[in-house]
Design brief:
By secondary structure, the protein is mostly helical. The protein folds into two domains: about 55 residues, no CATH class; about 60 residues. About 70% of the residues lie in helices and about 0% in strands. It has four helices and no strands. The radius of gyration is 40 Å and the shape is elongated.
Length: about 170
């Protein structure tokens, strides 16, 4: 680590520690209670999963106990690990054809642009259909309102004529 970077890291530790304490003091107590509660629940969960009775109740297999050698020199676990051969991946490339890579690249760009144009056109068509439907609904609403006004005008005229006869 460069000496300038070490100085900066030391300085940041001294600056950020009081700032983080200040911010933590003013946080809601529910957040600190959340941290306490999740920590306690994690402890209880791990303690429960180490209990053999709970493991058998949940259908989990027993934990494998590691035993160490008797001397301090032999401090490695004595459980045997099974060796598996590494998986192999077929990395041979297949021949694509006699086209050059530039030609393939340009055709890919052209097809991408073509599909983008088609998508834009379909979106424009959908927008036009939606706009036409909205105009048709507005026209129908206007027509219904005009028909209602004519009906009310005829009823009003009929009522006025019947009053004039009396």
């Amino acid at each position: 680590m460069a000496p300038e970077q070490a100085k900066t890291m030391r300085l940041m530790a001294f600056i950020l520690m009081p700032i983080s304490v200040i911010f933590t003091v003013y946080l809601p107590s529910a957040l600190q209670f959340y941290f306490l509660l999740t920590g306690a629940l994690q402890y209880l969960q791990s303690a429960a999963f180490y209990n053999p009775k709970i493991r058998t109740f949940l259908g989990l297999g027993p934990l494998e106990r590691l035993t160490f050698g008797s001397s301090k020199k032999d401090a490695t676990p004595t459980t045997k690990m099974l060796w598996e051969s590494p998986r192999t991946i077929d990395t041979t490339a297949q021949a694509v054809g006699a086209t050059s890579s530039n030609e393939t690249m340009f055709s890919a760009v052209k097809s991408t642009l073509q599909s983008a144009r088609e998508k834009m056109n379909s979106m424009a068509d959908k927008k036009d259909e939606k706009l036409a439907g909205q105009k048709a609904r507005e026209y129908e609403e206007r027509r219904a309102l005009e028909d209602k006004e004519r009906l009310l005008a005829r009823q009003h005229e009929k009522l006025r004529r019947s009053k004039a006869r009396i």
